[in-house]
Amino acid sequence: MNRSEILFIYDITDANPNGDPLDENKPRLDEETETNIVTDVRLKRTIRDYLEEYAGEEIFVKEKQSSTGEGLQDAKTRALDYLEEQDYQTFDEAKEELKNQILSTCIDVRLFGATIPLDVKVKNKKKTGSITLTGPVQFRMGRSLNKVEIEHIRGTGAFASSDGKTQKTFREEYILPYSLIAFYGAINENAAKTTHMTDDDVVKLLDGIWNGTKNLITRSKFGQTSRLLLQIEYSEDNFFIGDLNNKISIKSELEDKKIRNINEVTLKYDQLKESLLKNKDKISKICYRIDDNFNTNDESQNIIEVIESLGIPTEEI
């Protein structure tokens, strides 16, 4: 497995891509630049949910009902789902068994790593500790390529405010009319050896990014569309270009906050093209997936044509 980088672009219309629970669940905003922020945790949750619900994969980090029937499992109890209850001779023995069992079973730990608490019996005495696994797949926070403005919407609910009342309840929500979001990520081949991540896991990761985002059909997330996914694989050990999300930009005849769909935007790849050209001898191939409606603006260059013009091998995901 070689090191690779990921660039993922998607957009959202009249929805909330990632609410802040500490701020009335408003879309996250960088007040200085007026750009929309989406956490890496949100993207990883999207991938996990898709892999579990649609691909049938076992996921470690998820909400699971406690065996007592009251509330959810804590992290220690979740870890014990993968460890046989017995009296271990050493704590290291218990740690190794738990690590091997979780890595062989849970794709999200192979991808993203985890800190796993452990509470077991060692020579008939309770002992606690933890296992820390650094994930080979890491993302920066996503950030919109356009400036955005939050809209506050109020409406009436379907039910009365209390039994017998004629007045209905009110609902409030915060949305973004439009946000074009770019995520940057990297896959570390060295950490992959520790978590036993495979090439097949990477294929499932990319599927989870693309289709997981498209399949977030909830009231607050409906309206998300995957637009472009690139995975740049390198032939040189420990090399990567970096900052791919900052090597693309947008141009529009409209002010950023008035943009409402992808056809009103022209994507500019000049910096990305320059970086790829400069480092083409270190790139083994570029895997891609592109939405049919992406780059429909006549001024937009097709990014795949740009890459192929450089003589870099491409492969559709």
Topology record:
Blueprint: E1 4-15, E2 19-20, E3 26-27, E4 29-30, E5 35-38, H1 40-53, H2 75-80, E6 87-88, H3 91-105, H4 107-112, E7 113-122, E8 125-134, E9 137-139, E10 142-147, E11 151-160, E12 168-187, H5 189-195, H6 199-214, E13 224-234, E14 249-251, E15 266-268, H7 270-278, E16 283-290, H8 303-309, E17 314-316
Parallel strand pairs: 6-7, 16-17
Antiparallel strand pairs: 1-12, 1-13, 2-3, 4-5, 5-10, 7-8, 9-12, 10-12, 11-12, 13-16, 14-15
Helix pairs in contact: 1-6
Q: What is the count of distinct domains?
A: 2
Amount of beta strand = 35-45%
**What can be said about the biggest beta sheet?**
10 strands, mixed
Mean pLDDT: 89
User: What letter string, H or E per element, gives the SSE order?
Assistant: EEEEEHHEHHEEEEEEHHEEEHEHE
Query: Tally of extended strands?
Result: 17
Secondary structure: helix percent:
25-40%
Categorize the overall geometry: flat
* Low-confidence blocks of residues: none
What's the Cα radius of gyration?
23 Å
Number of helices: 8
First-residue to last-residue Cα separation: 17 Å
SS content category: alpha+beta
